[in-house]
Design goal:
single chain, about 90 residues, alpha+beta, two-stranded antiparallel sheet, 2 strands, about 10% strand
Length: about 90
């Protein structure tokens, strides 16, 4: 009897995920750059009013296939700066 084997879909972004997870922060200049480039919250979420009606666009960052890796990289950069006792409040949400 022949059985069908189901293949799992290949994760084409795996090399990019590994590269992002493998980035080591070794100096404060790199950490500051990462914190400036990766926002603390999703920049696409918006709430606005049109003709008295509230319209909310939900955050779409979770649809980014490497979102979790970018957030983790930013957190590692913030952690590096706090270990050096550098003020990270400019990189936190207002």
């Amino acid at each position: 009897m022949h059985t069908l084997a189901f293949e799992t879909p290949k994760d084409w972004l795996y090399p990019l995920r590994q590269a992002l997870n493998g980035i080591e922060i070794r100096n404060s200049r790199t950490a500051h750059l990462i914190c400036r480039l990766i926002p603390s919250r999703c920049p696409f979420e918006r709430t606005f009013y049109v003709a008295g009606k509230k319209i909310h666009i939900p955050p779409l960052c979770h649809f980014n296939p490497v979102y979790e890796e970018l957030v983790a990289l930013r957190l590692r950069a913030l952690d590096y700066l706090t270990v050096l006792e550098i003020d990270i409040t400019p990189y936190l949400e207002p």
